[in-house]
Predict the structure.
Amino acid sequence: MLEIKNLKAEVDGKEILKGLNLKVNPGEVHAIMGPNGSGKSSLSKVISGHPSYTVTDGEILFDVNFEPKNIIHMEPDERAKEGIFLAFQYPVEVPGVSNFNFLMTSFNSVLEHQGSEPLTEDEFRNYLKKKMEIISLRPDFLERGVNSGFSGGEKKKNEILQMAVLAPRLSILDETDSGLDIDALKVVSEGVNKIRSKNNAIVLITHYQRLLDYIKPDFIHVLYQGRIVKTGGPELALELEKNGYDGFLQ
Amino acid sequence: MNILSSFDHFLNEAKKNQSGVDWDAKRLAKESLSSKGLPSRKEESWRNTSLKFLSDVVFTPVSHMATALPEHIITLIQEKQIPGADVLVLANGFYIASLSKISESAVTVEMQQSPTSFQYHGDEGSEAIHWLNKIYNLHALEINITKDLTKPLQILNVAYVPTGAAVISSPRVQISLHANKEAKLVLTNMGEKNATYFANGHFAFTVAKDARLEIVNHVNQSANAYHFDFVGIRAEAASTVRYFELNMNGQLTRHEMVIELNGENIQSEILGASYLREKQHCDSQTFINHNHGHCRSEQIYKAVLDNEARSVFSGTVYIAPGIAKTDSAQLNQNLLLSDHAEVNSNPILRIFADDVKASHGSTIGQVSEDEIFYLQSRCINRTKAIELLGQGFLNEIIFKIGSDQLRAYFTAQVLREMHQPRKPQLKAVN
């Protein structure tokens, strides 16, 4: 579904990704771990098309209409409509735009892209009700401004709600566990596990083993200085937790 | 002065149709205006707004109302009526009883031959504009509200051009809200599509002790219209006043808004939301006069500017000598969607007392790329993302409207105005 080949990318003239390779198939869960500044968040932004990053070499191939397509020149919204979702480490606050309006605009943009009729407000409210249950959010949450004045936990739950609504084929969760207490982490993880299926893939970006206790990955990659330096099974996370990156990278 | 050149003709025609008008007062006002002249850009409050159009365009004052309004104007009036609200219709400044609908007995409407004048400490440089309204207004309305209103009352000012030639429309309305009563009012200022006219309104409100008044002043004029208004509010002790100014169309708009806090424990909120595009120019001059202590005034004016639009905000807060416990906050925030838009923001604090809390702030900025990226990552294209962010920016004001019905109505109005096709001018960083 996703194949990244020799990806090099820079921001403000500084090279962050230095020849990265990664292959993700439907149904798989990958975890990307690595020390601060190794390029984990940058990778998620480059895949989703953040305008600050320039791809200088390599390809990001993503299946569009069952054919691998290099997406590096696609706008972020075009990538999203093809099924790439990024859960932000720091979700942006959009005061004055209600969550409901935001979610509906977002969802209807996908329908429009697929050539379908947009849902009416009532139809969408019905659709949303089921999705809200996944992440146990109160209905008044929908009338509030997007992430505006939300607690850290609420913001992350909102990201997962958006993921549930858009039902992407590839979800990249950028440090979704950061800033969450243990209860919120459980709710968020359970939400992700409910969305997980054999047709979609998840890439988790995290510092800690903790998240991986709740969302079991199939593969773990260690990202260091803009490259994936090691790939292994779930046991690799435990090894990292025990010895730290320093011990591991020496 | 072009605007006075047809005065004699106007007077002769008006005399044929009206009686009991103090014609001498009009003549005197005209002479004062002729000798003093219009304000020039040398005056501080007129530095950013030109009155050149008053020399360039010939505006004909409307001396009487036709017996029947044209069909398309009646349709326009119906379209602009707020569902569920009572409505008073003024066409080119003339009260049209047949199209008005007042279901509440608490509202009385009277025509005033010589309306009461109050003293306001507003913009001294704008006296000429007030005179113009006085000279050309022939139907001054006085409205009394003696009980709580269950429905919003919409005062719908429509301007139209009966012969196609530009007109000057001069509505003048005075509204009194009695003690301990509550009302929600909307001033809808609109006109015939694409017509050229000069709407110069004068709206005065008295809010008695313990009364609660919410006013929405909605400017939604023709793309070729010039809109000026004076809004004066006299608030008495323990009253609550919430004023919303919404600017969504008209090529040149100028507001002079004065609130006199004439008692203690008054709560006032003076709020503005503008969406300006193309070459629209909007100038808001506000004057908040704390004449007594223990009052609170909160002012937030927000504008979204696209293309070559220009916004002027000048907010004067006066705090009288010797009064205590005054709390006043002022904020002017501007969001630029184009490199060619212009903002002038001018806070003026005149504080003559010691026990005072007064703050002011002003921001001018662009939509952040991180916000756009967030929306794009949720499948929303760049143009739509900018539109949503602009709506959100203004909705922070609109969402403060107390009446659910009016809030929903004006949220939809903002949505409609901002949804019109726009040429994206912001480019991605790389």
